[in-house]
Amino acid sequence: MAEAVRQWIGRHAGWVALALGAAMPLAFAPFGLWWLSPLLVAGLFLLWDGSPPREAARLGLVFGFGHFLAGTYWITISIHVFGELPLALAVVLMLLVVVIMAAYFALLGGLSARLAPAPGPLRWLLLLPAAWVLVEWLRGWLFTGFGWLALGYAQTDSALAGLAPVLGVYGVSLAVALSAGALCCLLAGRRRPGRLAGAAVLLLVWGVSAGLGRVGWTTPQAEGLRVALVQGNVSQELKWAPEQFAATLELYEALTVAALDHDLVVWPEAAIPALVHEVAGYLEHVRELADEAGSAVMLGILRYDFRDRRYENTLLALGDTPQFYVKRHLVPFGEYFPVPAQVRDWLRLMSLPYTDISAGGDGQAPLRLAGQVFAPSICYEALFGASQLVFQPEATLLVNVSNDAWFGDSIAPHQHLQIARLRSLETGRWMLRATNTGISALIDPAGRVVQRSPQFETYVLSGQVVGHEGSTPYAMLGNRAIVLLTILMLLAGALATRRG
Predict the structure, then answer these.
(1) What pTM does this model have?
(2) Which of 71, 123, 77, 129 is nearest to 98 (CA)?
């Protein structure tokens, strides 16, 4: 029976790889079947066993295609429905992203077949897990990076999340890949020592992770902060309509006035559909209202830099002296258009978006407001955990403002919230996450969503957070530790393979 199953899988390996990849998003939010990820990765590892390099690359490509097609289909919604690009072009761009992401899995499969051809514990427990994480890390920064659906994000509610404050999201990914390799040893290992090694690694990875999850890496301050996150729920279709402008200003003022018994009120990304200089009087009025009540306001808004003649996506802390944070990681085809001049001219002629937002520099200071120091990020930037460590350990809280209306009613807002949870875990700090249409949330240092808003409702999320001081190991070392560890694993595996 088992032999017949193996033969059937061998004849239909491509379809099996596609199914494994397409099932992978079920491990992530909103589905939360985190236990699926090591099983599915183990299935891919076993498919790769014995495959020549070209076949292994093909299976990796098919797996990655299914993985990202099922997990990031919402890119079409973002750039067609809200970005106003034609449907055909939006689909082409989405498929291009899917194929590029799938190519990383093809690279992994082809290299593993060349460098680690023999199935067994060395391949499953050293070479493949280490190579997986290095390729995942590479995907997170190469060509501006797109680390969405990294394995570690699926584990926010499992014991493996305990590794995040030590090794970051890629350390959690390594734990998943090691678990997958251990399952291969248990299911396909031919010798008892190999099966015992698999069982030992499985127990060690999960036991150590669970133990680390009980450690309090940072220290809470003595007093908390009452915060209100304003979710305006202005639909993307109406947001920039001239007839909606006055109503939007009135909405945010009214919601803020009702929340001025809080220490801090936070508005989402680009809450006001105008540039800073166009609503300077309105912003000063809001600041005065907050100041009189002993409160403070932080909001997302676009700005035009007259000196450098460029548009910027900013987070503004309203105080006696305004403080700006300028978004550093921009969304391709949403905030900038990496296309030739001829294509940009065509976009202009078709009355489609073509003007770029400019990225902020890396040397920006954290924002200081309401007696706290904030590590800021705007929307998509929540994906780049290592680049946010420049604000640590000075920052006591994290704040992320977003406009997830771009994703529509898809799985993306849930995935985005899960990514934000990892940022809290990595730094050991509360996160204030204010979004336009949801999901707004207060996330504690253990990555738990303490309070959240409903989607697609005008809502003010009220709660208490506590600033934290000190550093997690990950905040001090960033991704250097996990990259070094995986390189050492690869070297150890290569040496052992040669001697064998």
Answers:
(1) 0.94
(2) 71
